[in-house]
Structures are given as structure tokens and as C-alpha cells.
Write a structure and sequence with these properties.
Oligomer: single chain
Helix content: 25-40%
Distance between the termini: 47 Å
Number of domains: 2
Structural class: alpha/beta
Shape: globular
Strand order of the largest sheet: 1-7-6-5-4-2-3
Length: about 375
């Protein structure tokens, strides 16, 4: 079944009692037992809630996983995932990853004895060289944030298997519509469901999809034990958003391709990062392993003095953090999403004082280009 049909039918037919087309919001903390030693399958909403279950089953199906898990945010999902590891363990991590993930690793989990090696995960040799005897996993972003490097998921997964490691892929930027990392050998996918999956900038959500059933049981234990689960109302909002994921992303990607090409020709723009451009180093890899390039564009203006006027002059494009919603947003990574990364490291990675990130929405592309043209004048 095509994924556009799958997302449109999330939850359809679940409520066989009433025949409701949409899944109900089970806004309850606890459930009555039919009798001593008996259960309906639901006991307490931290452990399992019907609305959340529909969402968790949906992400598992879309990613080709054995089980899915929903959390109160993307960072809560990664936090729960890191509970799989113990003091002394080491993870190899994408070097230009989301600043919030870097903060979680370095300022929280390093205190508990985990260590992290940061590497360019587009370089398979560098990844293999970074593996230590204590390494237990590889954590990679399918498209890095914000420089949009394209990881070879199959190649990385092969390296992980050869060394007995888990491969964890943050697939937020591409979603299962454009990339299915588990089919390429990964073990776990991570999503900030806040972004493209929910798609309307109105809900916080994190999702995991786990391929191996035995590993999924461990993740389920930690989800229940730590308890940072997604509530039923937000689960329902995410389900509703996911139903239009395919058509939203199709429009966003078309818009992004047009805007990236326009930016690449602008006199005040010196570099554009977008995998859909043939000049992007990861263009061919993106074609080989996926079904699209996403709708995030990063670009550098020629002078730092152009940044503030650009951010203040746009009218349709909002200067805001986050991404993936129907509204186009522009972000200044060095002072927003990646401010917790050491300035020298940011500069080395290319997260400079001239780099901007654009999350392209579903508006008319001509209107968005006109807005950028006015702001860059």
C-alpha cells in the first residue's frame, strides 16, 4: 500500500464499537478492571492509552518496525532511548547535529558516564576510525541539522553490524514518506513528531520506531518506567496531522526546490545547502536511498550585516525556531538552535554568523520568493 494511503487511513476503523472514522481521544488516566486478575489491556495511561496506541502503531507501520513509541517531545524520546546504555558506554554521533541533542548528550548524559565521539557521518572511513572498544551505537541524522549532509544509511548500518553496534537514525527531516532507514539496515528511527509528522506547529511530540522485537521490549520498559509519554490529546493532534503528511510534504518539497534555485542565483547569497540541487555533495546519495530531498534549505549570506535586516523584513516568513509546519519559518542557528555548541566548534562545522535555515511551508512559492526578495533588497 502506498504511504500516502497509509497516512490518510491512520486510525480508520479502530473504533469498531461506534464506527467512528477518527480514533477517539481517550482522556483518562486509569481504566477499570473487569475483575480480579483481569484487564481490558489498558490499566494506566502512562503504560498504555488507546489514542497513543494508534499513533504508536502508525509510526511502526510507516517505518516498517516491530513497535513504535510516543513521547512528550523529541528530546524526551532521545532521553528514553539513551537509557539503553550504561556508564562507560560510548556512542559515535553525527558532528553537525541538532544543538538540543548535543546539549542533552554533553550537559546531561555525560554526567552519568556516557561518552560521545563526533564525526562527519558522510565519511564512512572516519566513522569506522571513531569506533572504540566501548562503542555501543551510532547516532546519525538522515539529513544533518543545519548543514543538510546526506548520510549513507546502508553503509553506516553495515559498519555498525560488523562491530556489533546499534544504528540509530534521526529521520525528522525526511519522514517515512521520503526515507525508511530500517529498510536500509538501521535498528531505530527517531522523530521529533512536532515537526513534519504533526505538521502544524501546534503540538510537541517525539516518536521512536524499533525494528527488533526484543530491543523494542527494552525500549517499552524504559518508556513506562521514565513516563515521559505523549498525552491522548496531543496523540490525537499528531494523528490528525499525519493524515495529510504526504500531500503537505509534496507541496513543501516543490516549493523548496524552487526557492533553493532562486537563492543560489541571488547576489547576496554565497552558498545554498539543499540536497535537491545537483551541486549538493549528497545529491546522488539522496536519490539512491530515498524518495526525495525534504523541504529544509540552509544558506549563507555574503555579509553578517545582512542577517538582521533579512530576519526583520520578511512578512510571510516568520522568524522562529522549529520547522516542518505548514507555515514557512526562518531560523538563525548560531544564536538559536545551536547556541549551546562551543563557538569555535560551530565555526569549524560551518554554523557561522552568516548561516540561515529556512523551513519551507505550503504557501505559494512565488509569494515566498517575493518575500525573500524584498527582505534581501
Amino acid at each position: 500500500m502506498n504511504i500516502s494511503t497509509q497516512v490518510a487511513h491512520i486510525g480508520v476503523g479502530w473504533d469498531s464499537f461506534t464506527g467512528g472514522v477518527t480514533v477517539p481521544i481517550y482522556q483518562t488516566a486509569t481504566f477499570c478492571h473487569p475483575g480480579l486478575g483481569k484487564s481490558t489491556g489498558y490499566d494506566y495511561s502512562r503504560s498504555k492509552n488507546p489514542t497513543r496506541q494508534v499513533l504508536e502503531d502508525a509510526i511502526a507501520s510507516l517505518e516498517g518496525a516491530s513497535r513504535g513509541f510516543a513521547y512528550s517531545s523529541g528530546m524526551a524520546a532521545i532521553t528514553s532511548l539513551l537509557l539503553l546504555f550504561k556508564a562507560g558506554d560510548h556512542l559515535v554521533v553525527t558532528e553537525d547535529l541538532y544543538g538540543g541533542t548535543y546539549r542533552l548528550l554533553e550537559q546531561c548524559f555525560s554526567r552519568f558516564g556516557l561518552s560521545f565521539g563526533y564525526v562527519d557521518t558522510t565519511d564512512l572511513r572516519a566513522v569506522e576510525d571513531a569506533i572504540q572498544p566501548e562503542t555501543r551505537a551510532l547516532f546519525v541524522e538522515s539529513l544533518t541539522n543545519p548543514l543538510l549532509k546526506v548520510a549513507d544509511i546502508a553503509g553506516l548500518s553495515t559498519i555498525s553490524r560488523d562491530h556489533g553496534l546499534l544504528t540509530i537514525v534521526d529521520n525528522t527531516f525526511l519522514t517515512p514518506c521520503l526515507l525508511r532507514p530500517l529498510e536500509l539496515g538501521a535498528d531505530i528511527t527517531v522523530h521529533s513528531g512536532t515537526k513534519y509528522l504533526a505538521g502544524h506547529n501546534d503540538v510537541l511530540c517525539g516518536l521512536l520506531a524499533v525494528k527488533d522485537p526484543a530491543l523494542a521490549e527494552k525500549v517499552a520498559f524504559h518508556q513506562n518506567a521514565a513516563g515521559a509519554v505523549l498525552g491522548p490529546q496531543d496523540s490525537w493532534l499528531t494523528i490528525r496531522g499525519m493524515k495529510t503528511l504526504s500531500i503537505r510534504l509534496e507541496r513543501q518539497q516543490i516549493n523548496a526546490g524552487r526557492i533553493a534555485l532562486w537563492l543560489s542565483r541571488h547576489s547576496k547569497v554565497c552558498k545554498v545547502y539543499y540536497p535537491g540541487l545537483p551541486t549538493h555533495p549528497g545529491h546522488e546519495q539522496a536519490i539512491r536511498q530515498g524518495r526525495g530531498f525534504g523541504a529544509i534549505i540552509s544558506f549563507e549570506v555574503t555579509e553578517p550585516s545582512f542577517v538582521e535586516p533579512l530576519l526583520s523584513r520578511t512578512r510571510l516568513i516568520s522568524f522562529a525556531e522549529s520547522l516542518g509546519g505548514v507555515e514557512t519559518l526562518i531560523t538563525f542557528p548560531a544564536v538559536q538552535t545551536h547556541s549551546d555548541i562551543d563557538p569555535k566548534t560551530r565555526e569549524r562545522l560551518g554554523i557561522t554568523s552568516t548561516l540561515l535555515r529556512l523551513s519551507v511551508g505550503i504557501e505559494d512559492a512565488d509569494d515566498l520568493i517575493a518575500d525573500l526578495e524584498r527582505a534581501l533588497a
